[in-house]
Specification:
Elements (H helix, E strand, L loop, with lengths): L33 E5 L2 E4 L3 E6 L7 H5 L3 E7 L7 H11 L8 E6 L5 H20 L12 H21 L6
Antiparallel strand pairs: 1-2, 3-4, 4-5
Length: 171
């Protein structure tokens, strides 16, 4: 009896040869040696420095033997961001930006150095993605005439209610 093969595979389990599309690039890679941070924003790998340091807190022997905490450093000027997006990034990053304009992101939530590295990079990507989104300008609005009239009527009613609570004027 023959074995049923999944659609698009041959006996040895490999995909059919008629696939013409290349496999999609991972989210973090754009071109060789570059890391994609957001749509239209990438940075050479050499601009980002990641250093493994000892993580604090509880964790038993693992925390005492391994440097799993990752400290990601990046000069904000190295990013090809428009000036308004750069200002938003600095504002969003807050105290994580040094006086020299260096962004520092640390990750120690995971027990493995690799996962902390991925976590720090994804935090950087989220931060840059938020910074490149231009906020929608607020449109100033006025209350409608009906709303103004309702507000004044409510004020009148409230005033009459409070006036009724006062003792009568003796004089």
């Amino acid at each position: 009896m023959g074995c049923v093969q999944p659609h698009g595979t041959d006996r040895d389990g490999h995909g059919a040869s008629e696939m013409s599309e290349e496999s999609p690039k991972p989210l973090t890679e754009t071109e060789p040696g570059h890391i994609r941070l957001a749509p239209g924003v990438s940075i050479p790998e050499g601009e980002i420095t990641m250093k493994a340091v000892r993580s604090g807190g509880p964790g038993g022997q693992n925390v005492n033997k391994r440097s799993t905490k990752i400290e990601l450093r990046l000069l904000i000027d190295a990013l090809n961001l428009p000036p308004d997006a750069r200002k938003r990034l600095v504002r969003l990053a807050g105290s994580r930006v040094t006086q020299d304009g260096e962004l520092i992101i640390t990750s120690e939530s995971e027990r493995s150095q690799k996962r902390n590295r991925e976590e720090a990079l994804s935090r950087l990507q989220e931060l840059v993605a938020q910074a490149i989104v231009r906020p929608k300008p607020r449109k100033p609005t006025k209350p409608s005439r009906g709303a103004k009239e309702r507000r004044l009527q409510d004020k009148r009613e409230q005033s009459e209610k409070k006036a009724a609570r006062r003792p009568p004027n003796r004089g």
